[in-house]
């Protein structure tokens, strides 16, 4: 079959593509910008990449009409708390209107479990999208998942941050809310096995793991697997706003995502049993097994995707457009350095491993201070890290940067700043003819931008000189 994947660069999208290819299908990946897309998407014979923004109906004509099915994996949870439901509805309407003009016979939609009588804005939006996607032209298959546990998933990484960093946790009362977590491997099995199954046309199924757990139990079992002793005290009163700030400062999540999560975590996520496990021959694993499997992937350095790689909010969606891919030359402040290298390949390996747990090779404490200051003003800070310790791809998140270009063949890496700034900033590395070139470019916005550049200039001289010297060493 020829299958359309929306959200192709997202957490689920990146993981489902190779599974569909293994089943013999060809895949059409809908992305907002081809230049932000991993090179491997273009190298596979059975992958076609098209530019399509579902908030812009005029771009959807790039999607071929001869598709047989489509996966709807679009999510706007990390955008504005007040706007994401409108954006999700608009995307769903535009998607439906266009897909009805194609040959698609089935649309598969991954949603969230919505059985509680009181739902958060996030879950209400998911339910509204389901209703919007229903059609008389194609069949809709809906899977509603609980908390998804897997390497790189938002829930896994947040739990990991809390358990690894806090020996004693003073937590909100919603930690006693019950939920049914499910492993990412099982979610993918349901999604792939449902493709083309006519008995699942126009049906909806909850998918969930075999256990009903509280968030507190999930934290403690996670700690047990990590062989850490942790103590949790829940407070009877902690406002959603305080809870959101608690998650925001302790974990790597953005504040907007933290707000959405907190609003949902007070709702019980308990699935309704059905025959779907038997029908598709999927036996969901336990929470502990899902966590253990996630750490196997982390330790083997094989994290296929991370929620952190998604664009943070609408401000950065605009900034990641193609016009920012070309580093500007005029009207900018620059710090340009070059250094002879002893071993080009070794230097390139260092560049490709920069950031995250590997650090920035020089003045790491200053990078950490900058990250902390960014968090204080509502930015993302450094705690997104990187998905893989040695590999990097276009579109990846890298601390408070976004990878715009990662071309190993051309020996060039270009990063775009996603921290809070009075302007735009790029950091570029290039290796050529026995030299490493490093260029920091800042395009200021108004007087504030110019004052910012001059205030950090002394630190830049210290950091950037030390960094290029370390990159040049063997």
From TrEMBL:
Q: Which residues form the NAD(P)-binding domain?
A: 7-143
Q: Which domain of life is it from?
A: Bacteria
List the SUPFAM superfamilies hit by this protein, alphabetically. Answer: NAD(P)-binding Rossmann-fold domains
UniProt cross-references to InterPro entries, sorted A to Z: DUF2867, NAD(P)-bd_dom, NAD(P)-bd_dom_sf, NAD(P)-dependent_oxidoreduct
PANTHER family, sorted: NAD(P)-BINDING DOMAIN-CONTAINING PROTEIN-RELATED, PROTEIN YEEZ
The name of this protein is: SDR family oxidoreductase
Origin species: Aestuariibaculum lutulentum
Phylogenetic lineage: Bacteria, Pseudomonadati, Bacteroidota, Flavobacteriia, Flavobacteriales
């Amino acid at each position: 079959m020829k299958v359309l994947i929306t959200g192709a660069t997202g957490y689920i999208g990146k993981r489902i593509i190779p599974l569909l290819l293994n089943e013999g299908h060809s895949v059409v990946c809908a992305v907002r910008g081809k230049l932000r897309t991993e090179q491997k998407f273009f190298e596979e014979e059975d992958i076609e990449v098209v530019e399509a923004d579902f908030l812009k109906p005029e771009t959807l004509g790039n999607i071929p009409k001869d598709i047989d099915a489509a996966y709807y994996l679009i999510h706007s949870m990390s955008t504005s708390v007040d706007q994401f439901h409108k954006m999700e509805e608009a995307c769903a309407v535009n998607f439906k209107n266009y897909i009805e003009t194609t040959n698609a016979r089935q649309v598969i939609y991954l949603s969230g479990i919505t059985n509680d009588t009181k739902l958060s804005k996030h879950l209400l939006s998911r339910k509204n999208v389901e209703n919007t996607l229903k059609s008389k032209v194609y069949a809709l298959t809906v899977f509603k998942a609980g908390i998804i546990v897997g390497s790189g998933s938002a829930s896994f990484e947040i739990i990991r941050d809390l358990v690894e960093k806090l020996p004693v946790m003073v937590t909100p009362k919603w930690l006693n809310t019950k939920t049914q977590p499910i492993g990412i491997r099982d979610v993918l099995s349901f999604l792939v096995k449902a493709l083309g199954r006519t008995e699942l046309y126009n049906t909806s199924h909850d998918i969930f793991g075999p256990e009903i757990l509280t968030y507190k139990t999930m934290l403690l079992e996670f700690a047990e697997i990590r062989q850490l002793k942790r103590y949790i005290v829940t407070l009877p009163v902690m406002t959603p706003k305080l809870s959101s700030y608690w998650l925001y400062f302790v974990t790597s999540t953005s504040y907007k995502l933290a707000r959405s999560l907190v609003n949902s975590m007070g709702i019980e996520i308990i699935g309704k049993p059905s025959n779907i496990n038997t029908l598709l021959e999927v036996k969901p694993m336990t929470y502990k097994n899902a966590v253990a499997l996630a750490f196997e992937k982390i330790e083997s350095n094989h994290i296929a995707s991370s929620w952190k790689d998604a664009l943070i909010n609408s401000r950065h969606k605009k900034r990641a457009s193609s016009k920012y891919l070309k580093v500007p030359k005029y009207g900018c402040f620059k710090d340009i350095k070059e250094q002879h290298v002893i071993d080009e390949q070794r230097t390139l390996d260092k560049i490709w491993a920069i950031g995250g747990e590997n650090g920035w090779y020089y003045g790491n404490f200053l990078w950490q201070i900058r990250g902390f200051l960014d968090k204080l003003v509502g930015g993302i800070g450094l705690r997104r890290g990187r998905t893989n310790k040695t590999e990097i791809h276009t579109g990846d998140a890298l601390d408070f940067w976004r990878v715009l270009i990662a071309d190993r063949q051309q020996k060039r890496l270009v990063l775009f700043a996603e921290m809070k700034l009075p302007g735009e900033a790029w950091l570029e590395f290039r290796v050529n003819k026995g030299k490493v070139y490093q260029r920091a470019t800042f395009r200021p916005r108004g007087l504030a931008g110019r004052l910012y550049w001059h205030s950090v200039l002394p630190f830049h001289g210290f950091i950037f000189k030390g960094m290029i010297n370390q990159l040049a060493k063997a």
